[in-house]
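HUMAN: You are asked to prepare a plain-text protein record giving the amino acid sequence and the backbone structure tokens, both parts labelled.

ASSISTANT:
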Amino acid sequence: MNTYIINFATYTFAMIGFIALILYIYKKSVYNTLNIKNKNYLNVENLLRLSPTKTVYIVKAGKERFLIAGDNSTTTMLAKLDKDNLPEEINTSDGND
């Protein structure tokens, strides 16, 4: 009876470990695939919190930048930014535009 319990516990823990390993490998491979495809396409470059619920973002999508405002219920695009109206640290940090 004792060997039955020991064998059952051993095989159960081995299967749980095997399933956990497979899930870990799967998550890593899916995350890396998605991360490589969309690495620099959409990026929040800067944000300013106006209140606990309202925030203004500078978002880079591809080679374009947008000024976006968001709160708990809505998100609004305020303006499309060109190089003339960007903050200096953002304007100089991206030399490939």
